[in-house]
Design goal:
2 domains; three-stranded antiparallel β-sheet; Rhomboid-like fold; mainly alpha; 299 residues; single chain; 5 strands; 12 helices
Length: 299
C-alpha cells in the first residue's frame, strides 16, 4: 500500500476516494495532523493512474463527474453489501475465495509456487529419488545417484534449448524439513510482496533471483542442488531494503526476522547445516540490491 498525496478537507478526500473506487482502484483515506487527508492506494500497479487522477482532481475538484461518481460509489457499496449478506451462509464463489485470499496476502503465484514444490517433492519420493524421478528439473541432466553422478559440462542442456532448467531447481527439495521451512518462509515473504506490490512484481523477483542464484550455485558446487532457499533469501533482502528505505511501500521485516535469517545464513555457511550457500549469498545480494534501488527510484 502506498501514499500518493494529500487533500485538505475530509469531504474532498472522500469524494476523490469514491471516484477512484468506481474506477476499480482500491484505496483508503487517513487523517494526518498538519497535512490534511492522506490518500493511500492498495496496489502498486495502480499508482501511476491514481496519481494522474489526483492531479486532475486538484485542477478541478468541482467537476460534476466527481459528484456523479460519488453517488455511483454509494450504490456500488450497497450492492456489494447485499451480495455479501446473501452469500454469507452459502458456499462462496471462486471470486469471493480469491478476494479473501488476496486480502490476507495469499495470492495466486505464492499458492502456485508452494503447490508446485509439494508436487515435485511427492514425485521425488519425498526427496529420496530426486535424480531418478525428476531429472528434468535439475539445472543440467544428471545420470546416476549418490556420489557417482554424470552430467554434460557447461550447461549443455540449457544451450540445447532446455532453458527452464535455469529456474526449476527451486522446486526440488531433499527432505521434509528442507521443504517445510522453505515453504513457510515463502508463504510469509511471497504473500507480503504479492499482496502489496502485485503478482507481476513477485513473478519478476522469483524469476530473476532463481536464475542468478541457480547459476551461482552451479558455478560454485556443480549441478546437484535444489531448493527455494535462494529465492527466499532474495525476498528477505528485497523486503528488508525496500521497507527500510521506503516505508510507504508497506513492506517490513522485524529486526528479529532479519537477525534469524542472518544466523541461519551463517550456520549454513560454516556447514553446521548443509546448504546451497552460493545460492543463498547471490539471492540475498540480488534481492537487497533490487529493494534498495527500487526504494531510491520511488523517492
Amino acid at each position: 500500500m502506498r501514499q500518493i498525496g494529500h487533500l485538505e478537507t475530509e469531504e474532498a478526500a472522500r469524494t476523490f476516494s469514491d471516484y477512484l473506487y468506481v474506477q476499480g482502484i482500491e484505496n483508503q483515506i487517513e487523517a494526518e495532523k498538519g497535512h490534511g487527508w492522506a490518500i493511500w492506494i492498495h496496489s502498486e500497479e495502480h499508482l501511476d493512474k491514481a496519481r494522474e487522477q489526483l492531479a486532475a482532481f486538484r485542477q478541478n475538484p468541482a467537476d460534476l463527474k466527481y459528484e456523479q461518481q460519488r453517488l455511483a460509489a454509494a450504490k456500488l457499496r450497497q450492492e456489494e453489501a447485499r451480495a455479501e449478506a446473501h452469500y454469507a451462509k452459502k458456499v462462496k464463489t471462486s471470486r469471493q475465495v480469491f478476494r479473501s485470499l488476496t486480502s490476507q496476502g495469499f495470492g495466486p503465484l505464492t499458492t502456485a509456487l508452494i503447490a508446485a514444490s509439494i508436487v515435485v517433492f511427492v514425485l521425488s519420493d519425498l526427496g529420496h529419488k530426486v535424480i531418478q524421478n525428476v531429472p528434468a528439473l535439475f539445472i543440467t541432466n544428471l545420470q546416476g545417484s549418490g556420489v557417482d553422478v554424470l552430467f554434460r559440462s557447461g550447461l549443455a542442456d540449457v544451450r540445447d534449448g532446455q532453458v527452464w532448467r535455469l529456474v526449476t531447481p527451486i522446486f526440488i527439495h531433499f527432505d521434509f524439513l528442507h521443504i517445510f521451512f522453505n515453504m513457510l518462509w515463502l508463504y510469509d515473504l511471497g504473500s507480503m510482496v504479492e499482496a502489496r506490490q502485485g503478482t507481476v512484481r513477485l513473478g519478476l523477483l522469483v524469476l530473476v533471483i532463481a536464475i542468478l542464484s541457480n547459476l551461482a550455485q552451479f558455478a560454485y558446487a556443480g549441478p546437484v542442488f535444489g531448493g527455494m532457499s535462494g529465492v527466499v533469501y532474495g525476498l528477505v533482502g528485497y523486503i528488508w531494503m525496500r521497507g527500510k528505505h521506503d516505508p510507504a511501500s508497506g513492506l517490513f521485516l522485524h529486526p528479529w526476522t532479519v537477525a534469524m535469517a542472518g544466523v541461519w545464513f551463517l550456520l549454513c555457511l560454516i556447514q553446521v547445516v548443509p546448504a546451497a550457500n552460493a545460492a543463498h549469498a547471490v539471492g540475498l545480494a540480488v534481492g537487497a540490491a533490487w529493494g534498495y534501488l527500487s526504494a531510491l527510484r520511488r523517492k
